[in-house]
Design a protein that fits this description.
This protein has 272 residues and is of the alpha+beta class. The chain has two domains: 2-107 and 146-199, Lysozyme-like (3-Layer(aba) Sandwich); 208-271, SH3 type barrels, CATH 2.30.30. The protein is 14% helix and 35% strand. The strands form six sheets. The chain has a five-stranded mixed beta sheet, sandwiched between helices. Strands 13-12-11-15-14 form a five-stranded antiparallel beta sheet, with no helix packed on it. A five-stranded antiparallel beta sheet has the order 20-19-18-17-21. A hairpin with a 2-residue loop joins strand 1 (2-4) and strand 2. The two termini are 38 Å apart. Bound molecules: zinc ion. Zinc ion binds at residues 38, 174, 182, 184.
Length: 272
């Protein structure tokens, strides 16, 4: 993907779908320095696009990504959209004037039910679509809607194109720039992995950990996923490749040789 005249161009050289939102500061352009990630807390891609292009919303973002990786751009990337609200980061305040906002279709906070999860707007989700985690800003353990692989891959591709075009300094969450008001994108969002891929920092540091007890390694980030082998013995070393809430993706090492890859609970590892 690439950016041309502040619009997203897809890999087949066609323009990304575009629907202009009226919710922008007219006559003003910005020089974006950051990419801010949000969840919609909505029920669908279409309903979120409709809302963010409705004048009553008094809110917007530059782009929405659906759960199948579908895309709708809502404003030129140098337009001042209304996604951040009262916010500050690294000496800047009012991040609407300094950032590009991307909304991910995600229900946000979920409540456990006997057979899965329920959103604040009473939509139900299967067990595997949710996870339990504590937000880094506080609030204790609660349920969160997971993001999808297609959604994250689309975000990484778009974010990488935006960094190339605008020289963005970092990828941050709404919950980083407005920590007292906002919980999005929250603990289900794999920020470390997305940031390192978008910013091209893969080789910067290799985070190596070892388990402090015998530790199960699973095919996904949660106890609902199958164990992929016998428990790792205490002291087994791993390289961290991603995170999802309290779960981390790892490559297991035998000496310095990589063996299995999977997910482990981060409470039972320490840095080495
Ligand atoms: Zn937000």
């Amino acid at each position: 993907m690439k950016i041309d005249q502040h619009r997203l161009v897809l890999d087949d050289d066609t323009p990304a779908p575009f629907r202009q939102t009226p919710n922008i500061s007219r006559g003003r352009t910005i020089t974006p320095q950051y990419l801010v990630i949000h969840y919609t807390a909505g029920s669908s891609f279409d309903s979120s696009v409709d809302w963010l292009t409705n004048p009553d919303a008094q809110a917007s973002a530059h782009l929405v990504i659906g759960r199948d990786g579908e895309i709708m751009q809502l404003a030129d990337f140098n337009a001042r959209t209304w996604h951040a609200g009262k916010s500050s980061w690294r000496g800047l305040s009012g991040l609407n004037s300094h950032s590009i906002g991307i909304e991910l279709d995600n229900a946000g906070i979920l409540t456990k039910t006997p057979d899965g999860w329920r959103s604040a707007f009473q939509k139900t989700y299967p067990e595997a679509d949710g996870m339990e985690a504590a937000h880094k800003n506080g609030g204790g353990m609660r349920g969160w809607h997971r993001y999808t692989l297609n959604q994250i891959e689309a975000l990484v591709a778009i974010g990488s194109a935006l960094v190339r075009e605008y020289g963005l300094k970092d990828v941050i969450g709404h919950d980083d720039i407005a920590p007292n008001r906002k919980s999005d994108p929250g603990p289900a969002f794999p920020m470390e992995m997305v940031r390192s891929r978008i910013m091209g920092r893969e080789d910067e540091t290799e985070e190596r950990v070892e388990c402090t007890a015998a530790l199960n390694i699973r095919s996904g980030p949660g106890t609902g996923f199958d164990k992929i082998r016998d428990a790792l013995p205490k002291g087994t070393q791993m390289i961290v490749t991603g995170e999802s809430g309290v779960w981390i993706a790892v490559t297991v090492l035998d000496g310095d040789d990589p063996t299995d890859t999977g997910w482990v609970h981060s409470h039972f590892v320490k840095a080495v």
